[in-house]
Amino acid sequence: MNNINLSSKDSRNVKKDKIIVRSLSIVCLVGGFQVATQYFSHQFNYQPQLGTHFFNIYEPWAILLWANKWYGEYSGIFDLAAGFGILFSSIGLILVLVIKMVLANSSRTNQGLHGSARWADKKDIVAAGLLATGKNHKSNQSDVVYVGGWRDNSGKTHYLKHSGPEHVLCYAPTRSGKGVSLVIPTLLSWTQSAVITDLKGELWALTSGWRKHHAKNKVLRFDPASTSSAHWNPLDEIQIGSGMEVADVQNLTTLIVDPDGKGLQTHWQKTSQALLVGVILHVLYKSEREGTPATLSTVDAMLSDPDRDIRELWMEMAMQDYLDGKSHPVIAASARDMLDRPEEEAGSVLSTAKSYLSLYRDPIVANNISTSDFTIRDLMHHEHPVSLYIVSHPNDKSRLRPLIRILINMIIRKLADRITFKDGQPAAHYKHKLLLMLDEFPSLGKLEIFQESLAFIAGYGMKAYLICQDLNQLKSRETGYGHDEAITSNCHIQTAFAPNRIETAEHLSKLTGQTTVIKEQITTSGRRSSMMHGHVTRTLQETQRALLTPDECMRLPGPMKDAEGKITKPGDMIIYVAGFPAIYGTQPLYFQDETFTARAQVNPPSFSDKLTGL
């Protein structure tokens, strides 16, 4: 434990002083007996009758044994020996008394008076569970994530790995080395299921081969703007007749009409969301009855059909007998709302709804969401672990954001839906743990369900590894989670490279803590022109200082790069583990490790796996 208790530190200092004084007192008393013994033995020239000795040195208490035998005969010599012994002990005890007074009146510095922050040592890192030693060295290495490196006093770099269920948050500006030092080593070690946001497809190229062939994962590349993408239809995740279809569709449509996570702020967003709930349910029930496709592209085509009066659709929705000869109340209510609206308002609601479905008019995207090669449940319940790479290239990032938000949202909702208990403890109802490796996750916009679920998804076997550029990106009111976000408070481990924003540096400085330093002040008196000062006073004063100031944080050494911008040497980083001192670490570059280099060279598969029906 790392509890701070200043009074206990002071008491330990006092106790230490008492031990010193008592020890010296005992030495003085024993020394007095030794002096008396040696004087007496010297007077009798170390006669054999005095007993055994070691180079004429007798046991200190031998004088007592001799006095018991011969005091009557040699009382004078015994008295003189006792006098020398008492003199020695008295002088020693006087010196001890002086030492005691000096210790009692000395100006002690309290190292924790203004703060006790310090950098973690090896013992702290082992206690935090990031460095395996001894018995812990053989722990399960397939469930670890890499959170940094640490260089010991000999200069050797050790990997810092975390195997617990707690979440990890990393502050890493662009091109700072997060991929080569944290993400890639983790993906080349973690053998269980994973969901990976892959902004450029680099992670697929470097890690999917090893994960498929050696970690025995099924690997999926969901790249909605590519013809080689795995297929996934969000509407396949909604099961008619489950009793949850209305709630599932409402959650889905909220994401559709709120692509940036800012909430349903306008009348048109709210009314178009209500309309889409009814239309999507209508498409799903119609698909179940008639076998027609049920996709978001189908929904858009139904609302945009140029050969059909839109009022005919509203009438069809209101009159269709989906439930034992009766119309579905939600579908019918949605249709009735549109029929009751003035024509101009109804047209605005319809056009707003269609605007949110424009992404699914892209024939490539429409094809990729027409069927499903996998289901959300496969991620944790398939026979084999599953790695899902969500690829969105920079030029398609904003356009594809609504679809990716839907996927991430459904992963959380579908996989954290229930928990079972056995013998009073939560029991795993999944086959594989799931790592959520989300790079640049604030760029997805605010996902309220994700923020709320971080507090409990660990109990469902999910571990989040979140990466953002800086604190501002995370706390942005427009595109992030706001000032009162709950992301940081739910991440047990936080890591950071040299930040570019002062706000992030100040946050990291506060996380590192305050320490107490000794300030020396020297004052002199006398004439300045004099060769010697009349009086010199030296004062020591405890004062407060940040262990890592914001400017020092911003000046953390970054990785060295060659002329092509490739990293050649690691930079420094800070690792924070709740309840332990901050760790001053270094980046563990994967390409400097022969094992990781070999794993990264395994060729990626040409095609994604297909899990549906397996």
Could you list some keywords that capture this structure?
41% helix; 9-stranded mixed β-sheet; 614 residues; 16% strand; disordered N terminus; two-stranded antiparallel sheet; alpha/beta; Rossmann fold
Structural account:
The protein has 614 residues and is an alpha/beta fold. The chain has three domains: 100 residues, no CATH class; 298 residues, 3-Layer(aba) Sandwich (Rossmann fold); 121 residues, no CATH class. The protein is 41% helix and 16% strand. Helix 7 packs across helix 8 and helix 8 crosses helix 12. The chain is elongated, with a radius of gyration of 38 Å.
Question: Concise description?
Answer:
This protein has 20 helices and 17 strands. The protein is an alpha/beta fold and 614 residues long.
Low-confidence blocks of residues: 1-9
Total beta-strand segments: 17
Structural domains: how many? 3
Secondary structural class: alpha/beta
Question: Which percent range fits the helix content?
Answer: 40-55%
Determine the mean pLDDT. 87
| Secondary structure tally, helices | 20
Q: State the strand order across the main sheet.
A: 5-6-4-9-10-3-11-16-17
| CATH H-level homologous superfamily name of the largest domain | P-loop containing nucleotide triphosphate hydrolases
Radius of gyration: 38 Å
Task: List strands and helices in order, with pairings.
Elements: H1 6-43, H2 62-70, H3 75-105, H4 122-127, E1 145-151, E2 157-162, E3 168-171, H5 178-187, E4 193-198, H6 202-213, E5 218-222, H7 245-257, H8 267-290, H9 296-303, H10 310-319, H11 329-340, H12 343-355, H13 363-368, H14 378-381, E6 386-391, H15 397-415, E7 420-422, E8 425-427, E9 434-439, H16 448-453, E10 462-468, H17 471-475, E11 493-496, H18 502-512, E12 514-525, E13 535-546, H19 550-554, E14 560-561, E15 567-569, E16 572-577, E17 583-586, H20 594-600
Parallel strand pairs: 3-10, 3-11, 4-6, 4-9, 5-6, 9-10
Antiparallel strand pairs: 1-2, 7-8, 11-16, 12-13, 14-15, 16-17
Helix pairs in contact: 1-3, 5-6, 7-8, 8-9, 8-11, 8-12, 10-11
